[in-house]
Design a protein that fits this description.
This protein has a 5-stranded mixed beta sheet with strand order 3-2-1-4-5, with helices on one face. By secondary structure, it is of the alpha+beta class. A hairpin with a 5-residue loop joins strand 1 and strand 2.
């Protein structure tokens, strides 16, 4: 963890977590709520937009399982997941 000026400890991860009443929150490691959303997808999108280079995103589902999410890649460049692979466009079912 890093220390911010004034002695407070900085966050190394953001978390998306469900609330009992059905909403989803984006919070820091210290559980400071940054935003609240109607769906998990909205919360995850908001968290990825806030994510800094030195942070990771943990998404917790309603069963208390956690999943790591990658920071978005640089715009304009296709991300290669494995050597030589290129992203493909999804085809919608007919």
């Amino acid at each position: 963890m890093t220390t911010k000026p004034g002695g407070s400890v900085g966050s190394r991860s953001l978390r998306v977590m469900p609330r009992a009443r059905g909403s989803w929150i984006v919070a820091t490691e210290q559980e400071h709520v940054l935003s609240e959303h109607a769906t998990a997808n909205e919360a995850e999108t908001a968290a990825l937009a806030r994510l800094r280079e030195d942070e990771e995103l943990l998404v917790f589902d309603r069963y208390h399982r956690s999943h790591r999410r990658a920071r978005p890649h640089a715009p304009g460049r296709p991300r290669l997941d494995r050597a030589g692979e290129r992203p493909v466009k999804a085809i919608s079912p007919r």
